[in-house]
Amino acid sequence: MTTEELxxxxxxxxxxxxxxxxxxxxxxxxxxxxxxxxGLGYLxxxxxxxxxxxxxGGREALESILEAGGMLDYETIIxxxxxxx
Length: 85
Fold this sequence. Notes:
There is one protein chain. By secondary structure, this protein is of the alpha+beta class. It has one domain (3-80). It has helices at residues 3-9, 58-67; strands at 11-14, 19-22, 25-28, 33-37, 41-45, 77-80. A four-stranded antiparallel β-sheet has the order 1-4-5-6, covered by helices on one side. It has a two-stranded antiparallel ribbon with strand order 2-3. Strand 4 (33-37) and strand 5 form a beta hairpin. The N and C termini lie far apart (29 Å).
């Protein structure tokens, strides 16, 4: 998929109750927002591949990224899956 196609599919989702595998167990979130792409998973950067990208600005920061056209490229981005509930 191209950068433009991926940007068009970005969704902002609540992280409340979501769990991800981390070294030594799992990480569970009680708040926050992240990008999600159906069929691919949650957007994460390669240097923090255990947890999704969740900016400190929350939903507003993610909305600002979308309003600016989305991510510039996906070279340092991976998609990760949530643990089964």
